[in-house]
Design brief:
This protein is an alpha+beta fold. The chain has 4 domains: 72 residues, Laminin; 34 residues, Ribbon (Laminin), CATH 2.10.25; 259 residues, Chondroitinase Ac, Chain A, domain 3; 276 residues, Rhopdopsin 7-helix transmembrane proteins. Helix content is 41%, strand content 18%. It is built from 16 helices and 27 strands. Strands 13, 14, 17, 18, 19, 20, 21, 23, 24 and 27 form a 10-stranded mixed β-sheet that branches. A 5-stranded antiparallel β-sheet has the order 15-16-22-26-25. A hairpin with a 3-residue loop joins strand 1 and strand 2. The chain is rod-shaped, with a radius of gyration of 50 Å. The termini are far apart. The relative contact order is 0.05.
């Protein structure tokens, strides 16, 4: 045991001696005899190697003599027990050591780049926006954030398509707006004030104030439509131009402004109900479909409609609804597409055209980034809420859109839109294009071919009869006096007016041009003149009947002054007050706008009322006269004579035009036929009363026929003296139409 103990003590002494040598040796001194130690190791006592500080062997031995052993770097930053550098700092391992440094966006107040532990951390945020080298493009604004910064476009600017907002590479360009100015030829202080206020709102636009600016724009629209001012005095064609400019201009402004918004939805509504909902999407968050909802309108469309061929930039979709456009769009026409016309023709069994529509719902405009929206890859679906209204004959609830005309005006149309569902208070539509949409109550103009034939034939017959009347009154020597003058000029006015009506009243171009206005003006004048001569006819008849058939009538200068001067004065005043009232898109007649039609209906109603009174007095007096002349005359013969005289006088005095004041609703179809027959054949009735039933004219016709046929004509009388007396007494009545 003693030798073994001695050996162990000797070995322990040797190890202690080696350890002592290691501690005492200089760490930077490498012995020339230890050249075989690996990299990052040094020689110890010329017999062993040890790894330098920051390194260790694979088996973690402190001393080694194995020639294949290596020294590996110790990663002081790794593991849960690694070096902790503190907040906003990272530990970085290096060969044989480590260091701590602040992360990007932070730095040490001392300016040093490195430190050893968390106790030395005072890493503070760097304000990159105040650095000597500006980090953003010169078109963008820099905003410092904790540990970073962001570059944003100033108000009135937006990022270029290839750059995104809030990124360091943001390059901004000005937001360019389509010029929103007054339509050509339109002067309106209210509209000019609105456009100026709108421009002020646009100048204050930023992404932060977007909702406020959008609401301000909508309130300006409400203010304009709620208080139109001088826009109410604009003619209908000009008002429709203003409506078109307002709809398209507002879409352009909202579309442009929304491109500067961040991703997501925005919804705003004014106190008067104008509502805007829009959404901006980027490629990474675009959805398969987009659904925007208002209180009275809902829209759903496919993402391909919004994006189109653009797959890299952002896209915008918006829906704006307005309740205040009803007055501005009043009296706008409706154009029915050919497909709809075919279905309506099958339903009513005759040709149908669009009439005056009534706006039921809000007017909702859809705008997207995609510029190609005339033919959509998939239809847009819209659902409208609207009041419950009774539907009458020739009426239908339809889906329509606002279509711009070539002159800047507009009209309602149905092309590409179909009604897919409907209830009393809601209607769903699908459309293959984008525009401004609404639900209308369409009042159709149904073309009754039988009425059209009656009109054409009746006017043709009347023109022939009127021409015969004119020739008779000019050439018949036996007809003298003021009554003949009235008959002649009444027939002249009806002949000219009927010719113009038959030839040029239909407006095939659907544009109210100079020719159409001229036709409407001439019709207005000659038909008024005809009614004035009818009034004079009634007055002459009144003087003749009431004053026991001995009146001389009115003088010619008063006849011409009242017959031609009065209608000329009415037409001149009407044209001076509202010249745009002449002509419609479908017919060259007086406009319904601003009650302009009453410049014709007013005088006509007065004349009809006056002549109706005269008609009643005339029939009453003639009844008494028949009894006085021949009390033994049979009642049937009296009734027949009075009936013929009454009907003829009704047509001559224009009283049959009263039927035109009651042509409303399906129950008046019979009145349509009565009105058309009685008035289109008015020339025939004049010829019958004033020529064929007049004994003097018949005698004159016999004389002309004898002269034409070279036959002998002789005047004779077979009447007794009593009969002659009776004939003289009846003569005024015969001249009156018996």
């Amino acid at each position: 045991m003693e030798p073994q103990r001695h050996c162990c003590l000797l070995g322990l002494c040797i190890l202690l001696s080696l350890a002592g040598v290691t501690v005492q040796g200089s760490p930077n001194k490498v012995d020339s005899n230890c050249a075989r130690c690996p990299q990052h190791a040094r020689c110890v006592n010329r017999t062993h190697c040890t790894c330098e500080p920051g390194f260790r062997t694979t088996n973690e031995k402190e001393f080694f003599s194995d020639l294949l052993e290596i020294c590996e770097d110790i990663n002081e930053c790794a593991g849960p027990n690694g070096v902790q550098c503190g907040p906003n700092a990272d530990c970085k391992n290096v060969d044989g050591s480590y260091n701590c440094s602040c992360v990007t966006g932070f730095s040490l107040p001392s300016g040093e780049k490195q430190f050893k532990n968390s106790s030395e951390n005072k890493c503070q945020d760097i304000d990159e926006c105040r650095a000597k080298q500006f980090p953003c493009h010169n078109t963008a604004n820099c905003t410092n954030t904790q540990g970073s910064f962001k570059c944003q476009c100033p108000k009135g600017y937006r990022p270029l398509p290839d750059s995104k907002d809030v990124t360091p590479n943001t390059i901004c360009q000005g937001i360019s707006f389509t010029s929103w100015t007054l339509p050509p030829g339109v002067t309106s202080k209210s509209l000019s004030h609105f456009l100026n206020n709108t421009q002020n709102h646009i100048q204050n636009f930023t992404a932060v104030t977007a909702e406020e600016v959008f609401k301000g724009l909508l309130e300006e629209v409400d203010q304009l439509l709620g208080n139109p001012g001088d826009m109410e005095a604009l003619p209908i064609s000009t008002r429709l131009k203003v409506a078109t400019t307002l709809l398209t201009g507002l879409e352009d402004v909202l579309r442009t402004l929304s491109q500067a918004l961040p991703s997501g939805q925005l919804h705003t509504r004014t106190s008067k109900g104008t509502e805007l909902a829009l959404e901006r999407q980027f490629p990474e968050n675009r959805a398969e479909s987009i659904n925007l909802r208002h209180r009275d309108t809902q829209m759903m469309l496919n993402r391909d409609v919004v994006w189109g061929k653009n797959h890299s930039d952002s896209a915008v979709v918006g829906l704006i609804s307005n309740h205040g456009l009803k007055n501005l769009l009043a009296n706008a026409t409706l154009k029915v597409d050919p497909k709809k016309e075919v279905s309506l023709k099958k339903k009513y069994e005759t040709s149908v055209r669009g009439g005056q529509p009534v706006l039921l719902s809000t007017v909702s405009s859809i705008f997207v980034s995609n510029p190609d929206t005339q033919t959509l890859s998939s239809p847009v679906t819209l659902a409208f809420n609207h009041p419950d209204v009774p539907i009458k004959w020739k009426q239908e609830v339809i889906c329509a859109f606002w279509e711009r005309d070539s002159d800047g005006s507009g009209h309602w149309a149905t092309r590409g839109c179909e009604k897919t569902g409907s209830s009393d208070t809601s209607t769903t539509c699908t459309c293959t294009h984008l525009s401004s949409f609404a639900i209308l109550m369409a009042q159709y103009d149904i073309e009754d071919w039988s009425l059209s034939v009656i009109t054409q034939v009746g006017l043709a017959v009347s023109l022939v009869c009127l021409l015969l009347c004119i020739l008779t009154f000019l050439l018949c020597r036996s007809l003298q006096g003021s009554r003949n003058t009235i008959h002649l000029h009444l027939c002249l006015c009806l002949f000219v007016g009927s010719t113009i009506f038959l030839a040029g009243t239909t407006n095939k171009t659907y544009e109210v041009g100079l020719q159409c206005r001229l036709v409407a003006g001439l019709l207005h004048y000659f038909f008024l003149a005809a009614f004035c001569w009818m009034c004079l006819e009634g007055l002459e008849l009144y003087f003749l009947v009431v004053q026991v058939f001995n009146a001389h009538g009115l003088r010619k200068r008063w006849l011409f002054l009242l017959g031609y001067g009065m209608p000329g004065l009415i037409v001149a005043i009407s044209a001076a007050i509202y010249s745009e009232g002449y002509g419609r898109e479908r017919y060259c007649w007086l406009s319904l706008e601003r009650g302009f039609l009453w410049s014709f209906l007013g005088p006509v109603t007065v004349i009809i009322a006056l002549n109706a009174i005269i008609f009643v007095i005339t029939v009453w007096k003639l009844t008494q006269k028949f009894s006085d002349i021949n009390p033994d005359m049979k009642k049937l013969k009296k009734a027949r004579a009075l009936t013929i005289t009454a009907i003829a006088q009704l047509c001559v005095l224009g009283c049959t035009w009263v039927f035109g004041l009651f042509l409303f609703g399906p129950e008046t179809q019979v009145l349509n036929y009565i009105f058309t027959i009685l008035n289109c054949f008015q020339g025939f009735f004049l010829f019958l009363l004033h020529c064929l039933l007049n004994k003097k004219v018949r005698e004159e016709y016999r004389r002309w026929i004898c002269i034409a046929t070279k036959s002998k004509y002789s005047e004779f009388s077979t009447s007794t003296s009593g009969t002659a007396t009776q004939s003289r007494s009846l003569r005024p009545s015969q001249e009156s139409g018996m």
